Every structure is written in C-alpha cells, then in structure tokens.
C-alpha cells in the first residue's frame, strides 16, 4: 500500500517532470500519470513489467428475467472465443503487448483443461436469481474474491506490476447498476442503462425488475453484504483482484461500468485501493460518468465504448507506457543551455 511518507518523493518527481524539455505542465495528464505511477512504485524511475489483463467470466441467475438484450449462453460462447483468441480483448491485448488471462469463476458450461491463458476456478455455474434470493452465499462470494486474489498473486509472481481487469457475463450491467445504487446512494434510474443495447421498452422493464431486487435486498448496506446479495461471481473476483493488486503495490487499470462497480466495492472495503487506479476510459453505459465522478476520477479515453472485457484498459495502456517513458527518457532543460 502507498504510505503518506512519499511527500519528498512527490516533490522530487514533480521537479524532474518540470525540468524536462517542454514548457511547464505541457504534457498535461501524462505528467499526473507519471507522478502517480512513481508514487505507487515509490521510485523516481518507475518501470512497467509484464502487463496483464485478467478477464473473469460468470453467469447471472437474474438473466432469466430478460434484463439483457442477449441470451445468457453468449457468456459461454464468448469464453470459447477468448480461448480461441478472437474477441476484441484478444485483439487489443495482442496489439499493445498485454498478456491475457481468462478465468471461469461462474460460467454455466464446462471447458477443457487449463492453459497458459485460461484458468478454471468455477465456484458455481452462475449466481442465483437475485430477484428471489441473494445472488451468492457468503462462502461463494468469499471464494470468488479469493479466486481474484490468487490469480493476481500468480501473475505478480511472474513479474507483472501493472494489471487490468475485465469481465464477461451476460446480464452483469444489472448487478453493477445495483452495486452503484447502493454504494453511492444515487437514484436507481441514474444507475441503470441499456447494457448490450436494450430498447426503450427493455430498459423500462430492466429498471422495474432492478427496483424490485433493490427493495428485496434493502437491508444490505455493508459492502460485503451488498456484493453477496446483488453482485456477481466475476464482479467479486475483480474486487478480490483489485484489493490484492493494491496490497501488492501494483498499478491497476480500471475499465468500464462493470469493472468500476467492482472498484466501488473494493474502495468501500479499503479506500487506499483508489490511489493505485488509472481510469482508462469513460464507458457509454448510463451511470459510468456518475460513478467516475463519485470516485473523483478522470478517465483517459472517451471513445463511446460499451463493451467491457477490459477493452478500455488494453486501449489506454500505450498512454500509460508513454507517461513512464517520458519520466525516464526525456532530456532535461540543461541540454538547451
Ligand atoms: C457478444 C457479446 C460480447 C461481449 N463482451 C462483453 N460484453 C458485455 O456485455 C454484457 C453486459 O451487458 P448486459 O447486462 O446487457 O448483458 C457483459 O457480458 C459484458 O462483458 C458482451 C456482450 C455480448 C452480447
Ligand atoms: O462499460 C462496460 O463495462 C460495459 C457496458 C455495456 C456492456 N457491457 C459492459
């Protein structure tokens, strides 16, 4: 974790950046990014090593209520697509040099054996239908959190110090909206969006169902209890992964609406996680802008993406690399005198 003792380092790094061959402040947000990464790594000369993108996949009992524009079995198909290398996240990770690791924590369907880029950690084949009962038991939720922690420790062991989190789970904009509603206190209609592309009618139906779910679980206000009742297995795994990454002193790349909902939980459990986070993009999903505002976060990109999978992280990673390269490799004003 970051310690407050870094104020002298902060001064030193700020001076270094100011003394580069450019007008003061002219590299804008890159300067803030470089400083943040230096403080996370507690060094004037940070390095990014073995970048990883972890995608957690899980199904949702609530999907049976028709809260998504797509059928639930797309989750299984998409995990096969990740394994075959054909999804958007595969393409962007290959392009930008991130190692992709996909983890099944709760997909309704089985897969062949583990590979270097696919891990089975199934807790159950999808959450329960939260319209009628809590999505998970406490044990299941904790097991999903542990899966996230274990995977992060594994990649750190292999030399990774910068990590993005993505997800796949048809229906998961619903738990994400509910977590946002309960943890930020914002009205539900400001948290619920079209997800994969619901029509006006579909959106109205989703809102009505989520209102019912929120009322059923109105007693849950503590972050772990909220996650257990209205979360998802892949969301809980991201929570665990983010908590562990922060504890390990890693840089965390935050993706869109679902990943930021996981961060809301992680942040509620341990606010020091926030300092490790780079907010990669602002999703087009209703509510993401407000979520970012709640976290006092400025996204790097705004490309009208609404996909998830960690795509925003993989796309923003070259900008993060540029910030570190600037700090390490740019000449100082001495060269001009
Ligand atoms: C083919 C396909 C690929 C995806 N990749 C990510 N998602 C995204 O969409 C889903 C959330 O939206 P909703 O709550 O409306 O179901 C999640 O699986 C998310 O990762 C996808 C969705 C589809 C259909
Ligand atoms: O921003 C996201 O994470 C997102 C938005 C819509 C659908 N799936 C994911």
UniProtKB/TrEMBL annotation:
Pfam name, any one: DBI_PRT
Pathway: Nucleoside biosynthesis; alpha-ribazole biosynthesis; alpha-ribazole from 5,6-dimethylbenzimidazole: step 1/2
UniProt-annotated catalytic positions: 309
Family matches, as Gene3D superfamilies: 1.10.1610.10, 3.40.50.10210
GO terms of molecular function: nicotinate-nucleotide-dimethylbenzimidazole phosphoribosyltransferase activity
Purpose of the protein: Catalyzes the synthesis of alpha-ribazole-5'-phosphate from nicotinate mononucleotide (NAMN) and 5,6-dimethylbenzimidazole (DMB).
Protein name: Nicotinate-nucleotide--dimethylbenzimidazole phosphoribosyltransferase
Gene name linked to the record: cobT
């Amino acid at each position: 974790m970051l310690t407050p003792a870094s104020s002298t380092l902060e001064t030193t790094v700020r001076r270094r950046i100011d003394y580069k061959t450019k007008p003061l402040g002219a590299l804008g947000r890159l300067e803030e990014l470089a400083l943040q990464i230096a403080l996370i790594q507690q060094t004037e000369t940070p390095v990014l090593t073995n970048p990883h993108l972890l995608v957690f996949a899980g199904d949702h009992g609530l999907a049976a209520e028709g809260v998504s524009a797509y059928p639930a079995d797309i989750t299984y198909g998409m995990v096969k697509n990740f394994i075959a290398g054909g999804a958007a996240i595969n393409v962007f990770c290959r392009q930008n040099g991130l190692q992709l690791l996909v983890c099944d924590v709760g997909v309704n369907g089985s897969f062949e054996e583990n590979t270097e880029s696919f891990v089975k950690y199934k807790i159950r084949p999808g959450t329960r239908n939260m319209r009628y009962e809590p999505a998970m038991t406490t044990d299941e939720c904790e097991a999903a959190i542990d899966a996230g922690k274990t995977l992060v420790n594994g990649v750190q062991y292999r030399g990774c110090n910068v990590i993005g989190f993505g997800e796949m789970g048809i229906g998961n904009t619903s738990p994400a909206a509910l977590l946002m509603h309960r943890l930020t206190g914002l009205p539900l209609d400001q948290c619920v969006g079209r997800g994969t592309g619901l029509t006006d009618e579909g959106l109205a139906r989703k809102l009505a169902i989520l209102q019912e779910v929120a009322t059923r679980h109105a007693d849950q206000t503590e972050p772990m209890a909220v996650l257990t009742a209205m979360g998802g297995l892949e969301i809980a795994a991201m929570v665990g992964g983010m908590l562990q990454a922060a504890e390990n002193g890693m840089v965390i790349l935050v993706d869109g609406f679902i990943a930021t909902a996981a961060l809301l939980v992680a942040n509620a459990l341990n606010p020091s996680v926030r300092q490790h986070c780079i907010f990669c993009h602002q999703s087009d999903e209703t509510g993401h802008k407000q979520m970012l505002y709640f976290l006092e976060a400025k996204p790097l990109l705004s490309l009208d993406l609404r996909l998830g999978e960690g795509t925003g992280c993989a796309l923003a990673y070259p900008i993060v690399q540029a910030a570190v390269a600037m700090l390490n490799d740019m000449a100082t004003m001495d060269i001009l005198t």
